[in-house]
Amino acid sequence: MAFDYDPNNIFAKILRGEIPNTTVYESEHALAFRDLYPQAPTHVLVIPKGAYVSMDHFTQEASDAEIVGFMRAIGKVCELEGVSEDGFRAISNAGENGVQEVPHLHVHIIGGRNLSRMLAKET
Ligand code: DGP
User: Fold this and answer.
1) Is the Cβ atom of 122 under 6 angstroms away from ligand 1?
2) Model-level pTM?
3) How far apart are CA 16 and CA 111, in angstroms?
4) CA-CA distance, 68 to 71, in Å (whole number)?
5) Residue 119's pLDDT band (cuts 50, 70, 90)
6) Read out DSSP for 11-72?
7) Is the pLDDT of residue 121 over 90?
8) Strand partners for 88
9) Are 114 and 67 in contact (CB under 8 A)?
C-alpha cells in the first residue's frame, strides 16, 4: 500500500512550530507533548519527526535510526511521567477502523489511573 501523508495535519503544524504545544520530551527523531483533551492524569502523545501516517507506514518505511529514536522516546516519556511502576497503556490508532483523527503517527501514553479493559464490549 502507498501511504499518502498530508503535510497540513495538526501534528505536522506542531512540528513546524505553527501551533503551540506543551512539550514533555524532544529528541532528534521524536517529539512528545501533552494531549489537548487528556483522558487520564497522564496523557502524552509521542510522534516521530518524520512524515509518517501510521505505525504500519513508519515500521515499513522509516530508517532504523528513526525507529530506534522513536521507541526510545516512548521509554523516556514513561520514565519522565512516572508511569512505569503503576502501569500505563500505549495506544496507536490507525485509519478508519482504528478511528485515527490526526493522520501523523502518534502513540498515546496514558496512565495515572486504572484504565479498565482495553476495548469496550460491542453492544
Ligand atoms: P487519535 O484519535 O489517535 O488520532 O488521537 C488524536 C489526539 O490528538 C486526540 O486525543 C486529541 C489530540 N489533539 C488533537 N488536536 C490537538 C492539538 O492541536 N494539540 C494537542 N496537543 N493534541 C491534539
Assistant:
1) no
2) 0.96
3) 28
4) 5
5) confident
6) HHHHHTTSS---EEEE-SSEEEEE-SS-SSSEEEEEEESS---SHHHHHHHS-HHHHHHHHH
7) no
8) 111
9) no
CA of 35 to the centre of ligand 1 (A): 6
Pocket test for ligand 1, best of 14, 23, 37 (most atoms within 8 A of CB): 37
**pLDDT reported for residue 123:** 59
Which residue carries 484504565 as its cell?
115
Quote the cell numbers at residue 23. Answer: 512539550
Contact at 8 Å (CB) between 81 and 40?
no
Q: pLDDT digits over 12-66, tens only?
A: 999 999 999 999 999 999 999 999 999 999 999 999 999 999 999 999 999 999 9
Phi, psi of 56 (to 5 degrees): -70, -40
